[in-house]
Amino acid sequence: MTEVSLRSLQKFYGKTAALKAISLDVNHGEFVSLLGPSGCGKSTTLKCIAGFEDITDGRICFDNKDISRKLPEDRDIGMVFQSYALFPHMTVTQNLAFGLEMRHVPKAEIAQRVARAMEMVQLTPYADRYPKKLSGGQQQRVALARALVIEPAILLLDEPLANLDAKLRDEMRGFIRDLQKRVGITTIYVTHDQNEAMTMSDRVVVMFDGEIAQAATPEDVYNRPASERVARFVGNANILDLPIARTDAQGTTVTLPGGATLQITRPAPSGQSRLRVMARPEQITLTSADLGQLPGRIEKRYFSGGHVEYSVATDCGPLFVTGPTTQHFAEGDSVGLCFDPARLWPLPDAESAQ
Ligand SMILES: Nc1ncnc2c1ncn2[C@@H]1O[C@H](COP(=O)(O)OP(=O)(O)OP(=O)(O)O)[C@@H](O)[C@H]1O
């Protein structure tokens, strides 16, 4: 297991700054996802770590050794891409053996390691098949086995599930995560799918415009976003801009339109007259109009299987709320909204000004 450190890593393509001095430590055996919109620099980060792109400035260290100038083949990395990039004229066995043959591993050992890798990804019955006779998920498992069979120190995965249909993607998510835990390999995973990042990772690194906006556990990124932009990118976020009634040792008290107050016990920025707070859709409950802290009217109702989604018009703007299927509100109904102040998250200063 290897620790990966990016130290003030910069990458320019001509005048385009793809990475603006990013720093990140990935621990031994950790599964870290790079998450962000298209063009934010996720793939560039991965390519720099793999050595497929030269870096402009900064350093990349594996176990504290600077490998920034090493050739890709000397970095001890396994990589899986969105396009499986299997050799079409080789069987599954031959695809897996190729990297080991290139490394002049003895024949008997190749046979053993290939058999073990094939078993790991449950493809033993398909050993003699050619890639075009395999499903997308099976091909992706071959790609994964081919990366792992060389027993690399680090596994890099660039949107490996993007070409699979939704059901297969769900299956492969669990499969990759279980395999990674079993093998214990340090893994960096690129995705623009927040569900994928949240369900698979020990830590999620949210990137915008070549910079790291937050690197934290999935729970922290979701419940305690570092900025309004992170809050809006990761899941649905209701942002309420509320006047501060008072700040004291107990926390910050804000006033909702209509007069109800909420005491926010989490630390809030000081010296402001207003506070922007985030409430996730499932952190707001709907009740009858006379009982809620904020009055509203159901504008839209969407049944989505496990729960119901509502768009509710309020004096704080439209709010997105999810509720249980056992509770029924119809479009046009007057409702009351209740907030749990312990779960409201005050957003930092800098973003409040935007
Ligand atoms: N070979 C290249 N030449 C010039 N600019 C590039 C090159 N590769 C990437 N870029 C630019 O660098 C920035 C980061 O690109 P990158 O591919 O890392 O983004 P990404 O987050 O992986 O996006 P996506 O999710 O669309 O793959 C973008 O502005 C992109 O246009």
Automatic annotation (TrEMBL):
It comes from the Bacteria. Signal peptide: none annotated. The keyword Metal-binding does not apply. InterPro entries: AAA+_ATPase, ABC_SmlMolc_Importer, ABC_transporter-like_ATP-bd, ABC_transporter-like_CS, Mo/tungstate-bd_C_term_dom, P-loop_NTPase, Transp-assoc_OB_typ2. GO terms for cellular component: ATP-binding cassette (ABC) transporter complex. Residues 4-234 form the ABC transporter domain. Keywords: ATP-binding, Cell inner membrane, Cell membrane, Membrane, Nucleotide-binding, Translocase, Transport. Pfam families: ABC_tran (PF00005), TOBE_2 (PF08402). One of its GO terms (molecular function) is ABC-type transporter activity. Belongs to the ABC transporter superfamily. This is ATP-binding cassette domain-containing protein. It comes from Pseudooceanicola spongiae.
